[in-house]
């Protein structure tokens, strides 16, 4: 057996009702590690191009990261993979919680589900036993209730990932949910699960991951985890308040917040999680406002944004929680009692959610956002895509392209919290106008027509996240060229300005250009892509990169017994990124034909605020990126030499016709 792996994956065919095991060869693990890497290798081989994303030929994979089960800090994330019904290309959604490590503890490196069940089922994996169970009684239930019932039936130690009514109704912005509110949200993979009539996967396991050197893993983890102990990691709140007070100055000077000292970052993530920085981000131009045509300081100033940021959110937190192996615990449960929504108890809204239902919609009502977050978790919706779709609908209503009135006494207008809550409920249930919107902005714009595509904020069908590309052009490039477009975590704003990545850049001789210097951005993103793929495949939380220097390479080597250097790992990351890209090319998606929406490019530029006058030079960045990745500079197709170098010669055959 290869240390670090069980060398076992499960292959489920829902059409046939069969469950089989397979043993990937050791070379596959060495070349792709785990998580999304193992996922793309398996799906590339097992799927033919042209498969209907909602049909039986699509394969939905649940793949733990390599380090899931190794017990290292932050090493608990898994990836859901499949062909995305939103983009028609490579689909992927990364998720925390406890499901990935428990899937690993069942002795599995991955689970791949094909076919369509004739009736609703859920899959139960209990160590070596796997069976499809009737889910007739669960169909129609929300994700929280589904999880509760399965846990009640199966007993202690079981972890569940499920879809809610939105996935069942094949809403293309549907998510998978675990732990009552941790989402594998992007790429519309909840719709794929719904189309398969697979309500949930429940797993319980008791195996210990075989690793090469457990003592060394523990030593590395102990050493790294020092930064999470002691008083040094709890600086005064004053630091944070100062940052807030300086927001207007930062806006005027077009300053960027940098990572800051590790102690401060750990403190902020522990104290606030990702709800910190919502007001700051809005003020300085990082957050898109008013469906990307607004200016934070003018249209959603600090006196409004502070109501949905930092302390305003945290005052409602009744409990913190951690993903498995996490020394920080950025998650939280909030509780609010009010007249409008009664007693609300659910997951704390994340940064992206607060922005998607806050400044993007000019909504400063926190209670409504907590209610919406809970609705999205329970129905199983991607909050980013849902917020972007609501923004699109509000602009359509403003322009007279859809009916303003959606219910008795409820009219769509910017900042109207009640109308927004009602619209989200309708999207979740596919009711009335909600049915028109439930497949995201691209489909809605196609149905509505009349020029609405101009303000449908998506790339290739995936709704844009809540970081403005005019504020961080590198992100704009990432939104455009990544095989899963419109992702904030492919080059997250500010993330590259931290010691853990700086040392990778330095080792590779790649410099970080100024914010509006377009030359050199492509090379930076190409390197980031390669490294971040390694982090993802290892199953590490991306936030770990903000906190000191997680020994990623050393952990992987101690777990597996390999002696991989940085170059070797970057080659793995490169291979994974290229295969994800090739998956899309094989589907006929042309990387040179994709575009950012005009507002995201700054066409026309904003006339006020910190982003005034900014228009991105997309073509320079894209050409640079293609070159740095080893693609043809004009078409974005990988060169034959690159494919040979990465051991992907067979892919060259597939791409001959492209
Ligand atoms: S930092 Fe947050 S998202 Fe990351 S592993 Fe910890 S709890 Fe999970």
Description:
It is a single chain. The chain has 658 residues and is of the alpha+beta class. It is built from 29 helices and 19 strands. The strands form five sheets. Strands 2-1-6-3-4-5 form a six-stranded mixed beta sheet, with helices on both faces. Helix 2 packs parallel to helix 25 and helix 22 packs across helix 23. The longest helix has 21 residues. The radius of gyration is 23 Å and the shape is globular. About 1% of the residues have low confidence.
Give a brief outline of the structure.
The chain has 29 helices and 19 strands. By secondary structure, it is an alpha+beta fold.
Uncertain spans, ≥5 residues at pLDDT below 50? 231-236
| Hetero groups | iron/sulfur cluster
As a whole number of angstroms, the C-alpha radius of gyration is 23 Å
Tally of individual helices:
29
């Amino acid at each position: 057996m290869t240390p670090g792996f069980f060398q076992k994956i499960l292959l489920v065919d829902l059409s046939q009702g069969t469950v089989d095991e397979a043993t990937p060869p050791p070379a596959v693990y060495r070349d792709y590690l785990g998580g999304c890497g193992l996922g793309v290798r398996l799906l590339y081989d097992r799927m033919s191009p042209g498969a209907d994303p909602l049909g039986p030929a699509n394969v939905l994979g649940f793949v733990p990261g390599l380090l899931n089960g190794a017990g290292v800090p932050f090493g608990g994330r898994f990836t859901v993979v499949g062909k995305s019904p939103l983009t028609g290309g490579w689909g992927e959604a990364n998720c925390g919680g406890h499901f990935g490590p428990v899937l690993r503890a069942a002795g599995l490196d991955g689970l791949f589900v094909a076919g369509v069940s004739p009736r609703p089922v859920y899959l139960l994996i209990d160590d070596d036993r796997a069976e499809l169970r009737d889910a007739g009684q669960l169909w129609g239930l929300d994700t929280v209730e589904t999880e509760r019932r399965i846990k009640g039936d199966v007993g202690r130690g079981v972890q569940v990932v499920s879809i809610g009514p939105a996935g069942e109704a094949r809403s293309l912005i549907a998510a998978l949910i675990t732990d009552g509110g941790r989402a594998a949200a992007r790429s519309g993979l909840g719709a794929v699960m719904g189309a398969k009539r697979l309500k949930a996967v429940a797993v319980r396991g008791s195996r210990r991951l075989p690793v090469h050197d457990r003592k060394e893993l523990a030593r590395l983890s102990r050493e790294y985890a020092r930064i999470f102990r002691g008083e040094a990691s709890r600086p005064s709140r004053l630091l944070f308040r100062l940052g807030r007070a300086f927001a207007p100055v930062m806006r005027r000077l077009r300053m960027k917040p940098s990572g800051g000292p590790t102690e401060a970052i750990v403190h902020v993530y522990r104290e606030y999680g990702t709800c910190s920085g919502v007001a700051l981000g809005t003020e300085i131009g990082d957050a898109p406002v008013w469906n990307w045509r607004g200016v934070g300081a003018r249209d959603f100033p600090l006196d409004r944004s502070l109501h949905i940021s930092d302390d305003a959110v945290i005052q409602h937190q009744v409990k913190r929680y951690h993903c498995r192996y996490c020394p920080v615990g950025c998650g939280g449960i909030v509780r609010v009692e009010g007249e409008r929504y009664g007693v609300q108890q659910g997951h704390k809204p994340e940064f992206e959610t607060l922005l998607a239902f806050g400044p993007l919609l000019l909504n400063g009502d926190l209670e409504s956002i907590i209610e919406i977050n809970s609705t999205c978790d329970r129905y199983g919706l991607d909050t980013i895509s849902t917020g972007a779709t609501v923004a699109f609908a509000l602009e359509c209503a403003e322009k007279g392209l859809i009916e303003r009135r959606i219910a008795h006494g409820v009219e769509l207008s910017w900042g109207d919290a009640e109308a927004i809550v009602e619209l989200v409920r309708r999207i979740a249930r596919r009711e009335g106008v909600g049915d028109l919107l439930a497949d995201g902005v691209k489909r809605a714009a196609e149905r509505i027509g009349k020029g609405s595509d101009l303000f449908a904020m998506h790339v290739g069908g995936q709704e844009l996240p809540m970081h403005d590309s005019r504020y961080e052009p590198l992100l704009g490039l990432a939104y455009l060229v990544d095989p899963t477009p419109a992702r904030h975590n492919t080059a997250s704003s500010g993330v590259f300005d931290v010691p853990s990545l700086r040392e990778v850049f330095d080792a590779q001789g790649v410099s970080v250009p100024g914010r509006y210097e377009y030359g050199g951005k492509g090379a930076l993103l190409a390197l980031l892509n390669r490294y971040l793929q390694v982090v993802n495949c290892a199953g590490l939380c991306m936030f770990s990169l903000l906190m000191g220097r997680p020994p990623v390479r050393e952990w992987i080597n101690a777990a597996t017994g390999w002696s991989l250097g940085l170059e070797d790992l970057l080659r793995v990351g490169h291979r994974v990124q290229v295969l994800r890209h090739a998956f899309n090319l094989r589907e006929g998606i042309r990387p040179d034909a994709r575009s950012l929406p005009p507002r995201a490019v700054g066409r026309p530029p904003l006339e006020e605020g910190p982003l005034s006058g900014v228009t991105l030079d997309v073509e320079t960045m894209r050409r640079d990126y293609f070159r740095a990745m080893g693609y043809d500079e004009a078409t974005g197709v990988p060169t034959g030499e690159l494919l040979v170098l990465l051991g992907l010669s067979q892919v060259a055959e597939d791409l001959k016709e492209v």
